[in-house]
TrEMBL record:
Class of the enzyme per the UniProt entry, highest EC level: transferase
Catalytic activity: ATP + protein L-histidine = ADP + protein N-phospho-L-histidine
GO molecular function: kinase activity
UniProt-listed SMART domains: HATPase_c (SM00387), HisKA (SM00388)
Entry coiled-coil feature ranges: 389-416
Record-annotated membrane-spanning stretches: 182-203, 210-235, 241-261, 277-296, 302-325, 337-360, 372-390
Keywords, sorted A to Z: ATP-binding, Coiled coil, Kinase, Membrane, Nucleotide-binding, Phosphoprotein, Transferase, Transmembrane, Transmembrane helix, Two-component regulatory system
EC number: 2.7.13.3
Pfam families (alphabetical): HATPase_c, HisKA
Protein name in the entry: histidine kinase
Amino acid sequence: MRHVPKAVAALLAVIVILLSLDPTGYAAKMTPEIENNIPSWDMRWGAENEDGSLDEVNNPSKAWMHIEDDTQLLKQPGNRGTAWIRIKLPSLNDETPAILFENIYGRHITLYKDGTNFYESYRGYNYENNRILIPLKPDDSGKTLYIWTESSKHRLGISGNVLTGDYRDLLGTLVRIDILDIVLGSTFIFIALVLLICSFFLFRPSMAMWLSLSAIVLSIGLLIVTYSPFLYTFYRSYGKLYLQLFDVALFILLPSLAFFFEQNINSIILIRKFRKVLTAYSLFCFTMMIVNLGAQERLNDVYYFFSVNILSILLVALLVLLVFASVRMALKGDREAIILSTGFAFFAVISITELSWFFIRDGHYNMFLWKWGVFGFVLALIAILGRRLAEKHKQVVRYSRELEMFNNELQRSEKMEIISDLAASVAHEVRNPLQVTRGFLQLMSKQEDGKNKDYLHIALEELDRASAIITDFLTFAKPEFEHTKTLTILDEFKHIEGIISPMANLQGGKISLDIPQEIKVRGNSSKFKQAFINIIKNSIEALREQGHIHIWAYVDNGEAVIHIRDNGEGMDAQTLSRLGEPYFSNKTKGTGLGMMVTFRIIEAMNGKITFTSAKGVGTEATIRFPVAG
């Protein structure tokens, strides 16, 4: 994860810290020393024609139910859309007492105390989960509160705690109940914006996946923020906007989620087809939302059916399909698929369970666990993102090394081409005058009997050395062979051994051959010998006491592989990297032409040569040629 951008990593750290502070998301479970929990209350269903008048509570035909379980809402009989709740206040010992209702369901809520209406709330939009904090007086101890609530979704009643205590303490509790949702959702929105900005700096093939990932994280953040009662409690005037943002986020999430998996799991065509269906259906729901708003929300029931009931079924189907696809890839050993399937399965199982329970309870369930499934899923997505960034970083490092190698090879090739042209022109121009000079010196040496004869002999030796250098230049400049034939490697090396063994013996070393008879290559015999004599000669000159040069060969994948290893002085990495460069030599009288010519001959025979060496250990040359035939 160290390759994940620092801003994202810091945000993840903040999320983890916040989760550790309040893992359940309900910080209102306070100690009795600060707040008192009212454990039970009475409730009765309202008649169809009731309008919330306090006179209705004295209707003897309506029976009251005693409620002690605050975790689930009661199912309403028939189509009744109103209910009355009766709560007896405990002793209020605080200077500024208050009462906090964690969850009261209804669009229209009225509270009565002492026979008068002292609180009323009406929401003109379909969000019916209310958190209500109401100040009281110390002399309200023991009094009875009557609450009338009306709903169009048939979700009525109290769910969660009803707390009494000091107003300031309860206000802090009210904020803490949902603040984590706001922080978590806002963090996801910020991460999505960071991913969106980063995506514009990526190559086009990666941009689509990053855009889909940013759309997923953005929609999840919007869902968490707009689903939380926090905004509806403190900024209720914008409730319609929050609901519209929630729907839009859901319309974005489904096709984006399918597209992200389509980009990462290409083996299942069904995902691509289902993504197209989800995209079309999301556009249809968005259009219906616009039409419903234009019709002053008179089409709410139809819009609710398509945007909630049908869309929820599609979401469950998508989650099941994606769990199957990710597990299928994970079983193939794909590491990214394992990470993705683990995080997504965590999210999908929680979401499918909560959605199923929501339908089983006919909407009488407040979903809250899904946000922690989302958190696990987003962590898995970011882990995959970090892994891919790490892989891209490795590729960039590898490509830069290869580029450096290719650049060095290009420079070497250019140098060789320049030297080749120069060598050919100079050699042809110089060789003829040298031959004439040598001829006249030979005539003079035959006629000279005095001390000048030694000088003439030295001059002839130097002319021969200059001629050998010119020959090397010509070999390097034009390594093409006039006469090529099939060469038996063992026969060639036996001849080379006969030439070079006396030199090895003078150095106190020995040469050993281990070459099969059947290995053959195509080439020019004299040039072949010249190249390997140069290599073996360098090995002999590097030998110390009891030196040994081992030469062996074998066939590997259609190539004749020849190894020449000595236990001489060896070379350091810098010297090894410069072998074959023009005019580079680690000998005091060397010109560097020998190895340069050797490289060129082997290259002309379609061969490859590499060296490995260590200072004080020795050097090994490995040469590969295509096998003849």
